Amino acid sequence: MQAMRDERRSMHPLLATRRAGVLLHPTSLPGAFGIGDVGPEAVRFLDWMEHAGLSVWQMLPIGPIGPGDSPYASPSSFAGEPLLLSPERLHEDDLLARADLARARRMLDRPGPVRFERVRREKTRLLERAHEAFLRARPRRLAREHEAFVQSASWWLPDWTAFAASRDGRGEAFHAFCQWCFDRQWRRLREEASRRGIVFFGDVPIFTSLDSSDVRSRPELFRLDRRGRPEVVTGVPPDSFSADGQLWGSPHYRWSAHRRDGFRWWRDRIGMALARFDLVRIDHFIGFVRAYEVPADAPNARRGRWRAQPGRELLAALAKDHGAALPLVAEDLGAVTPAVTRLREEFGLPGMRIVQNAFWRDDAFDMPHRFPPECVAYPGTHDNHVATGWWRTLGADARRRVRDYAGRSADPAEGLVRLAMTSPASLAVCLMQDLLGLPPGSRMNLPGTASGNWRWRLERGAADRAVAEALRRLVAASGRLG
Question: What are phi and psi of 386, to 5 degrees?
Answer without folding.
Answer: -65, 165
